[in-house]
What does this fold into?
Amino acid sequence: MKWTTMLSGAVVATAVAFAGAAGAADYPNKPIELVVPYSAGGGTDLVSRAFADAAKAHLPQPIGVVNKTGGAGAVGLSAIMAARPNGYKIGMGTVEITMLPHMGLASFTVDDFTPIARLNAEPSAVTVKADAPWQTIEEFMDYAEANPNAVRIGNSGTGAIWHLAAVALEEASGVTFNHIPYDGANPAVTALLGGHIEAVTVSPAEVVSQVQAGKLKILAVMNEDRSQTFPDVPTLKEKGYDVTVTTWRGIVVPKNTPDDIVDELRAAAKATADEQSFRDTLTKLNLTWAYADAPDFAKVMQKDDAFFADMMAKLGMSN
Amino acid sequence: MHEIDMLLQGFERLASEPFALLLAVVGVALGIVLGALPGLTATMGVAILLPFTFGLDPLSGLLMISGVFFGGIYGGSITAILLKIPGTPAAAATAMDGFEMTRRGQAGLALGTATFSSFLGGTFSVFVLIFLAPVLANFALEFSASESFALAVFGLSIISSISGRSLVKGLMAGFVGLLIATVGLDPMGGFPRFTGGMTELFNVPFIPVMIGLFAAAEAFKSLEDVDLRREVAAALGRIIPPWSLFRKMLPTVGRSSALGVAIGMIPGAGADIAAFIAYSETKRFSKTPETFGRGEPSGVAACEAGSNGCTGGAMLTMLTLGIPGDAVTAVMLGALTLQGLQPGPLLFQDHADLLFTLFAGMLVCYVLMLVLGLASLRFMGRILQMPKSILTPAILVLCIVGTYALNNSMFDTFIMLAAGVAGYFMQKYGFPASPVVLALIMGPMAEANFRRALSLSSGSYDFLYTRPITAGLLLLAAMTLFMPLLRHLIGKRNRSRRAALAREEGADLDSKNGAE
It folds into this structure.
């Protein structure tokens, strides 16, 4: 009796699951899992949790955040790629989608993901100590040119986005820096505060409290436009260096996800991103709201993919 | 003093916030539970609670997070002592003497010692945070790559004092740990080493290995006893340590707490390192170093005071500089920012009122930890009365679930089981497990920072002796490593001399006897 009840229960459950997978008309009819490739409490995680929270009003089912960390993001991103393309396991994609494949560290390529919406983007910025001898980016670059290898630039790890930002600046200007990898952006900023290195190329968001306290100063940002938080800081482009390097985070799904599910998620992501509470949360976290719908997001991904393929080859890091 | 006034005002404000106090209780209780379960860490607890604090006022949210942080660090000791399951890496150090005490039927005393030491160490660190924060703020900045390297080498040298009966076997276990620590992404080059193409191995799965070596190995071992013979005494015994013992441990607690605060302030060094260093230093200053590793209450006290001393130190760096010293404070940094409080040099000027209320709340959290801890011990102690036929499978299930929860990864679970089998054979042949854990913590730190220091100095090795902190720590490391060896050699010479003397005397006697 008990067994038959259980068995029939299992049959019904399976049938429901299959129905859910096959017909997208009633999508979503169960909670959605959002895979985050970085650990809880980090920037990517905070964006994801803020998104999941704000999305409640725009999806009939809740979004649950699951952190799958390891391998510089490769573990979580692989899990997103390998998920069943039914819209119930989506992912928080990061710029590493376009970087890791060219380092031989990932089994996926950028084409394994279908973009839904970019939510956040942060540029790189050249930051030095407040009492450093350079007042402008020109002075800094002149010094670096006159003293090859003397300027030590801290980054968040070899082959990570902020390392490549510094390398891109080298490429554009012809100077050479001494790149010092740290275990993340925070330790690099700590080393800069302690005067153990000359500069960092992390995002303005990661140095904002030190800049406001007058301990550090930003010389330039590597973006198309000036930062809203620091409108007085010039862009490298203004100064004649054609370098824009930004990290981004956004919702992606595995390729082959049915179009109607993609459209459903796109609409929900747009509504969520426009939610004032979501924008406020990002602002509080010093993160920049940078919503881009799927077509624009796809362009960013393809452009970065080509850029990093080129950079990794030049660095000799491509495998 | 200005700070005392501010603190008293903080207590006043806190008294009018019953909701914040309630959340502090919830936080501490939750932290203890999370800390006690293997695989669930204080970091995870804090991160999970973070979205929940979005809707709370800053004080309530931050107090709850502090509670989880403090409770989580302490909670690890409970299962470490009772079952040899370190809930946190720091508790792996506590397990060394704590579980031995349980074996000898002193589980209650071990738990009581751990609770009091945690409380004292943590409270001490919060007081340092309150009164010395501006003075000590820049200490963390002195630590460059070379100093971190030296600290890691010093940490590694501790293997000599936690090796147990055989120094050679301890060193062998340590070296195996160092070899395992080389698996993963190269810290400087970013390319994979010895991973066999598996992305899961890009980081050494450290916590699964630890859970396997300690808890799963212990569970496998108890499967051996077919007759379910109880080796561990079931009685919890006395919980509150007698005053005579407590007084003897006070210097240990004081020294360990201070070490904990200092290590907590150093970026990249946390409670695990503090616990091991405090243990080793206590053994160094002890009159009876041979009792360590065989159920010495001072060993438990040192680890717990050290790891909880870290909490205030880590917060000090985070609050004054806006730099998180470890994963938990990194999440707390996010929580503060979210509440509109920008950690960093300006925090103490702009939000002094809230900050001192928070400090008062932290002291309350530690008192709550003491009360909840002591109250729950009798209940927790019942675990020991469970028959082994239930307890052993339960431990294994706990290990598997906890490891899986860490990363939602079956791969980690298999690593844990493999480490458990390895740990079982290590125990069988007398190899200690703690040197492996220590090497896994310190190895990557030593390697990355040594190579980073070389990059910083453009390839010059001068940093090894030109920087005072580096040179001092390296010297201390050499002493720690070779002291037991020297003591052993001196002891041997004394013994052989005494033996020779005895022989001579014996010969004299013989000749006398012969003459008579």
Notes: The mean pLDDT of chain A is 88. Residues 48 and 284 of chain A are 15 Å apart (CA to CA).
